[in-house]
Amino acid sequence: MTRVYKCLILGLLIFISKESQACDVCGCAVNGMQFGIIPQFKKHFAGVKGTYRSFTSTHHPLFSHEKQSTSHESFTTIDIWSRWLINDRIQIFTLFPLHHIEKQEDAVISRNSGIGDISMTVLYSILDNKKNASGNFIHQLQIGGGIKLPTGHNDKIVANDDWVPGFQLGTGTLDFTANINYIIRYKKSGVMSELGYRWNQLNKKHNFEFGDRLSSSLKYFYVFNWKGKTWMPSAGLTHDFASQDFHEGDSLLLSGGNALFGHVGLDFFSPLVNGGFFVQPAVYNNVASGNLVPHTRYGAHINLFF
Question: Fewer CB within 10 Å, N- or C-terminus of the chain?
Answer without folding.
Answer: C
